[in-house]
Amino acid sequence: MTNRRDFLRKASLLTVSGMLAGKAGHVTANTLATHHAAASKIIGLQIYSLGSELHENVPAGMKKIKKMGYSTLELAGYNKGKIGKIDMMEFKKMAEDAGLKITSTHVNPPVREYSPKNKGEIMEFWKKAADDHAKIGVTYLIQPGQPATRSTEEVAYVGEIFNEAGKIAKAAGLSFGYHNHDGEFARVKPGGTEAVAGRRGFGKEVKGIEVIYDAMIKSTDPSLVFFELDVYWAVMGQADPVEYMRKYADRIRVLHIKDRAVLGQTGMMNFEMIFKQARAIGIKDYFVELEKYNGGTQFEGVKGCANYLLKAKFVK
Ligand code: MG
Q1: Three-state SS for 146?
Q2: Which residues, 6 or more positions from 242, have their beta carbon under 8 angstroms from its beta carbon?
Q3: pLDDT digits (tens, 9 = 90+) for 193-221
Q4: Which of 108, 94, 159, 142 is nearest to 256 (CA)?
Q5: Nearest-5° angle of CA 84, CA 106, CA 181?
Q6: What are the residue ranges of helices labelled H in 99-252?
Q7: Which of 20, 88, 147, 221 sees the fewest Cβ atoms within 10 Å?
């Protein structure tokens, strides 16, 4: 999202660089240009990455996050109008006081098995979640957890529920999205009782096999549901995130940028290709995510991720 303020900020940076280039010569101008390129990167953070460390002192933690180079946040831990133990409006203020903008949130409905019996309960939940998050002005309301999808029919029903959630979000001025792990890259068949993961999967004789992720995309309305692709979990599901972005350029709108540890340290993720493809299909928003980090504190790991992206030339 390039809003007016971002545009003006970038425009003014360009003007300053241009003036300096004229007056102070190439070396200074290039140094400043590099600095400005890093400063203009909009890097998001999924706050789950910090775990309980953030909740020890949220205002101080927010300032640390900002100083590392992040500028947007995706929430985790929503529960009845609160994030952790803090009222959402207060949480928003803590973020804003540190210069961070909350643009997204991860929220799971209370049930995993979807059926016409609990559809009402699920929709009640989304109504409240959408209203609460509209108040703090997020753009994206995202479900990060996979509902039960053991057959083609179950995936289709989940798609219906997602569309309904999408309508509720839209009415509140938000966009409803779905975030994957690796389980969505397993396959299902019509009338099946279990999803099958791995490249061997079902036998050739089985008809109508589909990858759950693809079936979810097919069964949802593009005007109501978008996808936040977690690139690491796609790889863990034996899928290629770059290929998925190509295939579903109009459906994948946000990314989770994640590695097994600190970004770029394992070699299992081709972030250069991922960022190139993301740019090619117009993705602007992404959030860094770090699971439990063994090399230090979560804050240190999250800082390592920011450093990687700030330095990377392929991140614009
Ligand atoms: Mg993720």
Answers
A1: coil
A2: 270, 273, 274, 277
A3: 999 998 777 877 888 999 999 999 999 99
A4: 142
A5: 125
A6: 119-135, 152-171, 212-218, 231-236, 241-247
A7: 221
Q: 30 C-alpha to center of ligand 1: Å?
A: 36
Q: How far is the CA of 226 from the centre of ligand 1 (A)?
A: 15
**Residue 36 confidence class, pLDDT cut points 50, 70, 90:** low
d(CA 157, CA 177): 16
CA of 180 to the centre of ligand 1 (A): 7
Q: CA-to-CA distance for 192 and 205, rounded, in angstroms?
A: 14
pTM: 0.88
Q: Are 149 and 158 in contact (CB under 8 A)?
A: yes
Q: Is 222 exposed, middle or buried (0-12, 13-18, 19+ CB in 10 A)?
A: exposed
Q: Which amino acid is at 155?
A: V
Distance 289 CA to ligand 1 centre (A): 6
Nearest Cα to Cα of residue 292 among 267, 264, 258: 258
pLDDT tens string 103-143: 999 999 999 999 999 999 999 999 999 999 999 999 999 99
- The residue to which tokens 């779905």 are assigned: 178
Give the chain's length: 316
Q: Can you tell me the distance from the alpha carbon of 121 to that of 104, in angstroms, rounded to the nearest whole number?
A: 23
Average pLDDT, the chain: 91
308 Cβ contact list (under 8 Å, min separation 6): 262, 263, 264
Between β-strands 101-106 and 72-75, what pairing exists: parallel, antiparallel or unpaired? parallel
What's the CA-to-centroid distance between 290 and ligand 1, angstroms? 8
Q: Among 220, 112, 106, which Cα is nearest to 166's?
A: 220
- Residue 304 pLDDT: 98
217 Cα–ligand 1 center, Å? 18
Cα–Cα distance measured from residue 11 to residue 182, given in angstroms and rounded to the nearest whole number: 40
